[in-house]
Amino acid sequence: MGNALRLLRKCLNPTADDKPHGVSASSAGVSALSRDLLNFETTSQVPEKLGSYVVSSQKAQANWYRKILEAWKQAKPRPKTPEEASRLVVATLKNHLKADVEGLLSFYGLPSPHNLVEVPTESPVSLPKGVRFELKTLPVDTKSVADGDTVTVYVSSKDPLVSSSLPKEVSLAAVKRAKAREKKNYTEADALHKTIIASGYRMISFQNEEVLAKKFRIRLSGIDSPESKMPYGKEAHDELLKMVEGKCLKVLVYTEDRYGRCVGDIYCNGKFVQEVMLKKGLAWHYVAYDKRAELAKWENEARQKRIGLWVSSNPEKPWEWRKNKREGT
């Protein structure tokens, strides 16, 4: 488990951990909220820095704290965990702006509403052997496919894997951008989006909503497709693009390569992408890095049928092509 977490941190490239509302850990956010509610009860003042996380006025913020304070007093037992505190806030402010609720939770380092899933009664399905973690992506953009074995994907910050290490400055920039767009200050909004992009994130339109998402570069495990300037390089690129464009993908990540890419299996609408690429003769089985027998089987099927790059009796292998380019031969 420790190795999986370290790998995830590498793929996410997080910045140093930020403390919620000046406390040492996310669980302490419950104590910080409790303390601020007590302070509000005596002074009617909301935390000074909260306005940087939410879009509504200070008057509206005072109204939230009044409601949350009442709900907190009535709760039996009182919230003790971040999840319990988050549920109380979400239930109390259910008719308020989504950006405000999420901003308030972020201020205290509490889980977002989208991460408050019910605890399953059945045992969770374990990941396949060797898989460190699973990514569920937003729809893939046309420009995200580099070649026949590499694709850039984005995963919503609502996904627990991403939200657990979302830098506070990125979350804050997203809130400020929403405020700027609301005021039609598009110059400021664009500048804030550039800051978000520089941090490895992006705002993506999805289902009539702007979603903050984390960027991942994925190298398909076990195959090596022709480079773009090689024969069948364009065909490999186009086939992969045709499969994944506009689709949400499931990515099972095994490791990270020396270029910082997550190496994994991609599934699209139930199809195993590497299987399709091999069977259509648009990739080699990359046996040096992945010895799965089924990959060799699918490559051999394409060879025998002389499909795709196998119309040539001895096509140049992409790893040899790259080596020759490096050596200038």
N- and C-termini, Cα separation: 44 Å
Query: How would the global form be characterised?
Result: elongated
Q: Portion of residues in helices? A: 40-55%
Structural class: alpha+beta
Number of helices: 12
Please indicate the percent range of residues in DSSP E strands (runs of 2 or more). Answer: 15-25%
Could you please describe the fold and organization of this structure?
This protein is of the alpha+beta class and 329 residues long. It has 12 helices and 10 strands. The protein has helices at residues 2-12, 28-43, 58-74, 82-92, 98-108, 160-163, 168-182, 186-198, 233-244, 273-279, 293-305, 318-327, and strands at 133-136, 145-147, 150-156, 201-205, 210-220, 223-224, 249-256, 262-268, 271-272, 284-285. Strands 1, 2, 3, 4, 5, 7, 8 and 9 form an 8-stranded mixed β-sheet that branches. It has a two-stranded antiparallel sheet with strand order 6-10. Strand 4 and strand 5 (210-220) form a beta hairpin. Helix 2 packs across helix 3 and helix 10 runs parallel beside helix 11. The radius of gyration is 24 Å and the shape is elongated. Mean pLDDT is 86; it is low at 12-26 and 117-124.
